[in-house]
Amino acid sequence: MNTPSLPIDQMPPEDDVLAGEYVLGVLDTAQRRAVESRIAREPAFADEVAGWEQGFMALAAQIAPVPVPDYVWARIGSALGFGPSPRSVVAAERGPFWNSLGFWRWLGVGGFVTAAVCLLALLNSVRMPDTAPAPPVVVAPPIPTPVPMASTLARDDGRPGFVATVDQRSGRMTITPLDPVVEPGRVQELWLIPADGTPRSLGLVSAERAQSAQVPEKWLALLDARAILAITLEPPGGGPGGNPSGPVTAKGSIAML
Amino acid sequence: MPVPRFADTSDHDEPGQLLLATANGDRVAFERLYRSTSPRLFGVCMRIIPQRAEAEDVLQEVFTNVWRKATQFDPARASGLTWLTMMARNRAIDHIRSGRASRQSVPIDLAEELVDAAPDAQGAAEAMLEGHRLDVCLGELEVPRQQLVRTAFFEGITYEELAQRSGTPIGTVKSWIRRSLVKLKACLER
Question: What ipTM is given for this predicted complex?
Answer without folding.
Answer: 0.85
